[in-house]
Design brief:
Structural class of chain B: mainly alpha
Order of helices and strands of chain A: HHHHHHHHHHHH
Distance between the termini of chain A: 64 Å
Shape of chain A: globular
CATH class of chain A: Mainly Alpha
Number of helices of chain A: 12
Helix content of chain B: 40-55%
Strand order of the largest sheet of chain B: 2-1-3-4
Shape of chain B: globular
Oligomer: heterodimer
Distance between the termini of chain B: 59 Å
Order of helices and strands of chain B: HHHHHHHHHHHHEHEHEHHEHEHHHHEHEH
CATH superfamily of chain A: Transmembrane di-heme cytochromes, Chain C
Number of domains of chain B: 3
CATH topology of chain A: Fumarate Reductase Cytochrome B subunit
């Protein structure tokens, strides 16, 4: 089992990193020939950075759109961020001080994450407009995240696993050594699903994460009268 | 043609229940072979349209970062589902912005993504069949490219970018829309969207000089092709004779007259509108913009000012510098040629509202606000001005400056309900190349959200005039207001109000 998961995580990590790198290069390399910020927009690069931070941290546009979706979505993402930070303890020795500090919050965040996901999923059944646009993969993605959170919480509250051994396993992976992994079915489910999430990330709608930073309606400064903005393929037309 | 029916105005607007295929019968006329060929598109649907369309899509995702990112990033969160005026007015789920995007995204996934190739059903990927292509034609012609959805999308996905790409693909396989493509042909051939030739334009302007003389006693000029004038005015051709547009043109002329600014129109570039935007075609848009560059160079003007037109101001403000070097700050020879001629103490280009507001602030105009006392005024933000441009130096100037101007020339002003103005404004229902009568039913239904907020201020505050700064808004509202029980003359331009209030010759 240890060898299987070791291989799986090396593969998943490679696919995640390489896949995202390819995507990000593709986004960065595709020209944006016209100035299309959704206005009112900041007029400076610094202002754009602030706009993006507000979008990433507060989900500002979504807040303006739909309060319920914002609430569930924000709670889910913020909780997941805490949970991820909490999991850093499996990869660091000694555990960093602030990672130790967030441990108790990270546990509660697991429940908040489930609650947020539950709310988001409920909308896909209860709101006719959202039901209409939901694809099977939207449901599967939610199922995947719910199962990851639920199996994680199960190991905390129902069927403890040997976390010391789990930590030893991951520390080993980081130095390319395959150590023993507890033969625990809940743990196997948890790790397997996490690896699956990493594998689908670069090929799925999870690309909304890098996508936001490349969205011209959000990342462009509103200064077209002051500066001539010209893409390479468009500049060639001037030469004709 | 389907019956034209206006939905009932609701006191508490809530999103309608979805009614699949409610608007499946709505489609504008297809462009004729002549119109298509005149602007370099295939005359009719080509035999290998499927492969051509997929190839074009591949080309576009390589040329436009917006399209590539927007096709990937959507998570189907539903934030946009109740934001489109056409959805609110029709209930057709394919008018929800996400569903409209999905018509293309499904095909993109099938042909350009791994999961779409491996598990099409799972991720909603679809083959581009003739039915899907027809759906594209129908529903991308039910989007006015107003960008309201992009305000609310957590990733800023702008359905207008997808709609424009779809129209570009449809044109490239010979499935163009008559209204837009016929007009683009006219502007290339004659110089304006209405196909008004130079001599007719000259006659019209002389007539306006006489009318204005009669009204005011002042010799207000409407100059055409005057070399060495300071200002070149680029205005939508509807301003030359359509009602109520012409009243704003008279307003601009009075402002120039009162301020003593020499100005001219151009018969070569007698059109601010740029329908190249609506069909998402960079080259068409650029070629139309180049006419203005040519006119400015030929006439030797120092400033370029744009009249009341929403999408034209978007193109002028956001794209002219890119497309034709009309603006400031360029360092390449092509753009420097014009930019070294322009006077950069002024914003280039300048919106007519910016120009007039600057003059008002300097005290250069004599204004009799009481002359507008018979009007209780509200202001309709036009979508392209609100969400795709700016006026003045601060973000949001596109909202503040026209309002400040209205308040400077009139006493009675009322705002419509928050959430229906500023960046959340609702499209008039006729933008984006949809201002054509065979889809009047769609236009009437799409006007519903604006009509509801107008009804509210009309009932509560006696509003009897809705000012706006867009030729399409003016034409659209003139047509659809009666369907909602309003008088068609309720709509007019901001400079129509300026025209009423301004006193000529009474100054100094």
């Amino acid at each position: 089992m240890a060898a299987f998961f070791a291989g799986l995580f090396y593969l998943a990590a490679a696919v995640l990193v390489a896949g995202l790198a390819v995507r990000i290069r593709q986004y960065a390399g595709t020209p944006a020939p016209l100035k299309i910020p959704t206005t009112p927009a900041p007029t400076t690069r610094g202002g754009v950075a602030v706009r993006l931070v507000r979008e990433v941290v507060l989900f500002e546009s979504l807040f303006k759109a739909t309060l319920w979706t914002w609430l569930f979505g924000w709670v889910f993402h913020a909780a997941m961020a805490l949970v991820l930070l909490r999991h850093l303890r499996y990869f660091t020795e000694p555990v960093w001080g602030w990672v130790a500090f967030v441990q108790p919050f990270g546990v509660y965040a697991g429940f908040a994450m489930l609650a947020g996901l539950g709310g988001l999923w409920a909308r896909r059944f209860l709101v006719d407009r959202v039901r209409y646009i939901s694809t099977p993969s939207d449901h599967l993605m939610l199922a995947l995240l719910v199962a990851i959170a639920a199996s994680g919480l199960a190991m905390k509250y129902l069927a403890h696993t040997d976390v010391v051994a789990v930590k030893a396993f991951f520390l080993g992976l980081m130095t390319f050594q395959v150590r023993e992994l507890p033969a625990d079915p809940v743990l196997a489910v948890h790790l397997g699903l996490v690896a699956a999430l990493m594998l689908v990330f670069p090929f799925s709608k999870l690309l909304h994460a890098p996508g936001l930073f490349f969205s011209p309606s959000r990342n462009q400064a509103d200064d077209p009268r002051e500066r001539r903005h010209l893409a390479e393929w468009a500049a060639r037309l001037d030469a004709k | 043609m389907a019956d034209v029916t206006a939905p009932k105005l609701r006191e508490y607007p809530v999103p309608p229940a979805i009614q699949p295929d409610a608007m499946a019968g709505s489609m504008p006329y297809v462009a004729t072979e002549k119109m298509q060929e005149a602007i370099g598109f295939p005359a009719k649907l080509v035999d290998d349209w499927h492969d051509k369309a997929i190839a074009k899509m591949g080309e576009l995702v390589g040329k436009y970062r917006s399209l590539r990112v927007y096709l990937d990033a959507c998570v189907h969160c539903g934030a946009c589902t109740d934001k489109c005026h056409y959805f609110l007015g029709t209930g057709d789920p394919k008018n929800m912005p996400v569903a409209r995007q999905e018509l293309m995204r499904g095909v993109y996934r099938r042909h350009f993504t791994l999961p779409g190739k491996l598990f099409p059903k799972l991720v909603g990927a679809r083959e581009l069949t003739k039915e899907v292509l027809d759906d594209w034609y129908k529903y991308y012609n039910q989007c006015s490219e107003c960008r309201r959805c992009s305000v609310f999308c957590p990733y800023g996905i702008d359905t207008a970018e997808v709609t424009m790409a779809a129209k570009e693909i449809l044109d490239s396989v010979g499935y163009g829309q008559k209204y837009t493509n016929e007009i683009i042909g006219k502007v290339h051939k004659i110089g304006n969207n209405l196909g008004l030739p130079g001599p007719a334009l000259e006659d019209t302007l002389l007539g306006l000089e006489e009318d204005t003389k009669e009204e005011t006693g002042a010799d207000v000029k409407f100059p055409l092709d005057v070399k060495g004038a300071e200002v070149l005015l680029i205005t939508p051709s509807a301003d030359f004779f359509a009602e109520p547009h012409v009243d704003s043109l008279i307003g601009y002329a009075k402002v120039f007259h009162a301020a003593g600014i020499s100005w001219t129109l151009s018969s070569h570039a007698s059109e601010a509108g740029n329908f190249g935007l609506f069909i998402g075609n960079y080259e068409q848009m650029r070629n139309i913009a180049l006419r203005i560059r040519e006119a400015a160079l030929e006439l030797g003007v120092k400033r370029i000012v744009v009249g009341e037109c929403g999408h034209a101001w978007r193109v002028a403000y956001s794209f002219w510098n890119t497309l034709a070097g009309i603006g400031s700050g360029a360092d390449d020879p092509f753009a420097r040629m014009l930019q070294s001629q322009l006077d950069h103490r002024y914003r280039q280009p300048t919106h007519i509202c910016e120009l007039t507001w600057d003059l008002v602030q300097k005290g250069a105009l004599v204004l009799d606000k009481e002359a507008n006392d018979h009007r209780v005024i509200t202001f309709h933000d036009s979508c392209n001005v609100a969400r795709a441009s700016r006026m003045g130096d601060e973000p949001g100037g596109q909202f503040e400056i026209p309002r400040a101007l209205v308040r400077a020339v009139a006493n009675k002003y009322v705002e419509m309900r928050p959430g229906t103005t500023h960046e959340a404004t609702f499209c008039c229902g006729g933008g984006g190349g949809l201002l054509t009568d065979e889809i009047l039913d769609l236009r009437v239904k799409g006007a519903l959200p604006r009509m509801e907020s107008l009804r509210e201020v009309a009932d509560r505050h006696g509003v009897n005039f809705m000012a706006t700064i867009c030729a399409i808004c003016k034409a659209q509202f003139t047509k659809v207001l009666p369907y909602y029980g309003f008088n068609r003359s309720m709509v007019g331009g901001v400079h129509q109000l300026v025209s009423t209030a301004i006193r000529l010759g009474a100054k100094q």
